[in-house]
């Protein structure tokens, strides 16, 4: 049980984010504690991916504050956030299709300067993702969709994250691949990595998470434990496909 006085690993306070000319996120508050898996669920265009991009530093914050491990990070460039242990697996994976699997993995460790530690982490990642080990010398663009998603996660893990941001990891994958992917994500969480998950498959997201937030039109409209949201009639109707 988490002590209530322990400050969160990640805390958003009044965060507002613009996506081009559009105000996509309107002053949201959100918190995630060390060791938690927390999900953001909601319809397309709700502001979920924009929120992750702002946390990672891909998009600037127009207003509000993002604190990570007790430090205000919303003005830091992305690479400094990565150095502090925050890694994003973006929607669409963001792989370099013409580079090999091994080259893509090495890019995940670009902020690190201890080759031995990187080599040890690479071995752990390949043990977690055996299909990726078999394809180290293939171009990333030749992998199947499921393999590409595993590679994107493996690349992020090479940054040795304390907090992993996952944006729509199941998108475009067959159901059997989604199950395998979520088993891998659960293993990562059990190994102590905190996870903030954006996922269209709300049922799977809530099954994996301890807590969750519902977003709509750039606002947090509901939050609670995963069990509370699973039992909420509005959530069941809107996101779990139940009448």
Question: Would you kindly provide a written description of the structure presented here, covering whatever features stand out?
Answer:
- The chain is an alpha/beta fold and 243 residues long.
- The protein folds into two domains: 1-85 and 162-243, Rossmann fold, CATH 3.40.50; 95-160, no CATH class.
- It is 37% helix and 25% strand.
- The protein has a six-stranded mixed β-sheet, with helices on both faces.
- The radius of gyration is 17 Å and the shape is globular.
- GO terms for molecular function: ATP binding.
- Pfam families: ABC_tran.
Quick structural summary:
With 243 residues, the chain is an alpha/beta fold.
What's the order of the H and E elements? Answer: EEEHEEHEHHHHEHEHEEHH
Q: How many independent structural domains? A: 2
The chain-level mean pLDDT equals 93
The side-by-side strand order for the widest beta sheet comes to 6-7-8-3-9-10
Helix content: 25-40%
Structural class: alpha/beta
CATH superfamily of the largest domain: P-loop containing nucleotide triphosphate hydrolases
Q: Regions with pLDDT < 50 over 5+ consecutive residues? A: none
Q: What would you call the shape?
A: globular
């Amino acid at each position: 049980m988490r002590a209530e006085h322990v400050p969160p690993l990640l805390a958003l306070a009044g965060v507002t984010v613009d996506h081009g000319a559009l105000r996509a996120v309107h002053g949201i508050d959100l918190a995630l504690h060390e060791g938690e898996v927390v999900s953001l669920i909601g319809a397309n265009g709700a502001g979920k991916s924009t929120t992750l991009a702002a946390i990672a530093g891909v998009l600037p914050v127009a207003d509000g504050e993002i604190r990570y491990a007790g430090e205000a990070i919303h003005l830091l460039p992305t690479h400094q956030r990565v150095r502090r242990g925050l890694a994003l697996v973006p929607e669409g994976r963001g792989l370099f299709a013409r580079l090999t699997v091994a080259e893509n993995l090495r890019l995940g460790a670009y902020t690190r300067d201890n080759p031995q530690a990187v080599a040890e982490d690479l071995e752990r990642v390949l043990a977690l993702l055996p299909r990726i080990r078999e394809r180290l010398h293939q171009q990333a663009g030749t992998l199947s969709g499921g393999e590409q998603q595993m590679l994107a996660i493996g690349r992020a893990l090479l940054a040795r994250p304390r907090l992993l941001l996952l944006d729509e990891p199941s998108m475009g994958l067959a159901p059997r691949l989604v199950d395998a992917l979520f088993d891998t994500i659960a293993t990562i969480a059990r190994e102590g990595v905190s996870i903030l998950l954006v996922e269209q498959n709300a049922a799977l997201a809530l099954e994996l998470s301890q807590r969750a937030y519902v977003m709509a039109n750039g606002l947090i409209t509901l939050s609670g434990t995963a069990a509370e949201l699973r039992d909420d009639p509005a959530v069941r109707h809107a996101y779990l496909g139940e009448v």
